[in-house]
Structures are given as C-alpha cells and as structure tokens.
Amino acid sequence: MTQVVINFKTDAKLKSAAKDVLDEMGLNFSIAFNAYMKKLITERRIEFTTPEIPNARLRKAIKEADKEYKSGKLKFYTDMREMRKSLGV
User: Fold this and answer.
1) Share of the chain above pLDDT 90, in %
2) Sequence-distant (≥ 6) Cβ neighbours of residue 40 within 8 angstroms
3) pLDDT tens-digit series, residues 40-49
4) N or C terminus: which one in the chain shows less Cβ crowding within 10 Å?
5) What does DSSP assign to residue 52?
6) Domain definitions of the chain by residue range
7) Where is the signal peptide (predicted)?
8) Rounded to an integer, what distance in angstroms lies between the CA atom of residue 22 and that of residue 14?
9) Which of 49, 22, 24 lies closest to 33 in space, CA to CA?
10) Could you give the 3-state DSSP secondary structure of residue 34?
11) CB-CB contact of 86 with 75 (8 Å)
C-alpha cells in the first residue's frame, strides 16, 4: 500500500484537544483520520451532530414551555382536524 501525507490547517487549540482525546484512547491522528475517511467512503456522507446539552436559547424555550404547561395555557389536541380548525387551516 502506497502511503501519502495529507496536510491541512486547523486551530492549534483544537489540535491539542483532539490529541489529548486520542492519547486517552490510545490512538493517533493517522488511525483516527484513516478510520474517518473509510467511513466517509463507505457511507458517502458526513454526519454532523448536535451537542446533547441544550444551549441557552433552547433552555429558555424549555423553561417557557414548562411554565405554560404548568399554568394550563397549553392546548392539547387528540384529533388533527380539531387542531387545524383551531389554527384556521
């Protein structure tokens, strides 16, 4: 297998943090990037994920929705037609 070198630019702090994680896992950048490229080729897609911790905007929306729910202001529908009628659709 012929090997080549790939160079790319990244933030120094990002590289350092990634190296720390890879070191904890007993891996290096070559192993990680080769695995990632094989997955990219196989699945023909790049997967972007969102953090599991809600950001400030979402936390605020959740609090507001919780207040509405507890105050009884929220309407609940068991029938799609009823909901559409309420919305004027």
Assistant:
1) 67
2) 46
3) 999 999 988 8
4) N
5) S
6) 12-43, 56-87
7) none
8) 12
9) 22
10) helix
11) yes
Q: What is the pLDDT of residue 88?
A: 87
Distance (Å, rounded) from C-alpha 72 to C-alpha 80? 20
Give the total residue count for the chain.
89
Q: Yes or no: say if 32 and 22 are a contact pair by the CB < 8 Å rule.
A: yes
pLDDT, position 49: 84
pLDDT tens-digit series, residues 55-79: 899 999 999 989 988 998 888 888 8
Dist. CA 88–CA 17, nearest whole Å = 52
Q: Report residue 8 as tokens.
A: 């790319």
